[in-house]
């Protein structure tokens, strides 16, 4: 694990006018020192953190020495969403999780970048919630990102997503075992019927007297309960429904005309959370006013979680962006 650094932000006004007197922003960087190489910002998803590479890195198949996102060439930077519980107490930091929006997090990240002396980013990439924050960052500063790469996400939360966030919120606030039980429900959104049917094939554990799929779900519930905090889960779940909350189709089109970023949309054909259809719709809107927009689709039976599973396909998509740039420079 690389060193965990902290930036202190003071008197930060949220979108709802609440002023946070102090926000600690934790981050890690990998690869070349800040200020010496192109910067790639990686935004983590709901239960992720800033450990994006290394032995326990959640995207280590994409990021590292000699990898597609090559830490021998780039500076790879990752912030922790304040309140995600990675080396901080979310109960003290986030007394009211509904105060925050993804736009607030995007503004916090930009303030952190400014503190580090980073004005422009070679790329911003993130999956799911992290991709939604990437969109919000681009809306705030449309000319300061060279490559915008939202993965398994979209620029706005749909009614379907908002509805599922509500169900998760009710479980988190009413269950006797909230993290465990909310995770059971969430896993059914992150995967697909075909994925589970092929994995378990109705097999049973005779000793435990349960179906294997039941044991798998219960295992994931226990696993998250043992490493994640309730205040963090409530916040991260809430943030999902705020993606694009202050952006409508008109302002989205204005952004598309203003930005010079190359936008690479990466969808998953079987995603139930952020569907491929809504990503294709976004692509169709963007390409009316913008030439350097590209649509990529991961083919997988695994649904939303494919962005954490189908590394070979994702590497193939990212190779043209990151390795081609290196070759041009050389």
UniProtKB/TrEMBL annotation:
Keywords: Hydrolase, Transferase. GO terms for molecular function: hydrolase activity. Transmembrane segments: none annotated. InterPro entries: AB_hydrolase_1, AB_hydrolase_fold, HAT_MetX-like. Pfam families: Abhydrolase_1. Residues 38-156 form the AB hydrolase-1 domain. The keyword Hydrolase applies. Gene3D superfamilies: alpha/beta hydrolase (3.40.50.1820). PANTHER family: HOMOSERINE O-ACETYLTRANSFERASE. This is Alpha/beta fold hydrolase.
């Amino acid at each position: 694990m690389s060193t965990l650094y902290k930036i202190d932000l003071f008197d930060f006004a949220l979108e709802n006018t609440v002023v946070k007197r102090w926000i600690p922003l934790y981050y890690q960087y990998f690869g070349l020192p800040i200020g010496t190489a192109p910067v790639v910002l990686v935004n983590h998803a709901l239960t992720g953190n800033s450990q994006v590479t290394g032995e326990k890195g959640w995207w280590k198949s994409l990021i590292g020495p000699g990898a597609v996102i090559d830490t021998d060439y780039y500076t790879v930077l990752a912030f922790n969403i304040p309140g995600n519980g990675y080396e901080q107490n979310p109960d003290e930091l986030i007394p009211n999780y509904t105060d925050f929006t993804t736009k607030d997090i995007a503004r916090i990240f930009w303030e952190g970048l400014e503190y580090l002396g980073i004005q422009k980013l070679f790329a911003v990439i993130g999956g799911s919630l992290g991709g939604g924050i990437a969109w919000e960052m681009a809306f705030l500063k449309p000319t300061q990102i060279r490559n915008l790469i939202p993965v398994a996400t979209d620029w706005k939360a749909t009614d379907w997503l908002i509805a599922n966030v509500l169900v998760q919120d009710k479980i988190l606030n009413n269950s006797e075992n909230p993290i465990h039980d909310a995770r059971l429900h969430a896993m059914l959104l992150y995967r697909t019927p075909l994925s589970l049917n092929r994995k378990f094939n109705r097999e049973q554990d005779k000793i435990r007297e349960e179906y294997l799929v039941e044991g798998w779900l219960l295992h994931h519930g226990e696993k998250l309960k043992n490493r994640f905090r309730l205040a963090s889960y409530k916040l991260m779940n809430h943030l999902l429904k705020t993606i694009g909350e202050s952006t409508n189709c008109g302002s989205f089109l204005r952004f598309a005309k203003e930005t010079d970023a190359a936008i690479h949309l990466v969808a998953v054909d079987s995603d139930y959370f952020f569907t491929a259809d809504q990503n294709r719709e976004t692509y169709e809107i963007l390409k009316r006013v913008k030439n350097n927009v590209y649509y990529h689709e991961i083919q997988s039976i695994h649904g939303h979680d494919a962005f954490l599973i189908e590394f070979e396909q994702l590497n193939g998509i990212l190779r043209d962006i990151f390795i081609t740039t290196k070759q041009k420079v050389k």
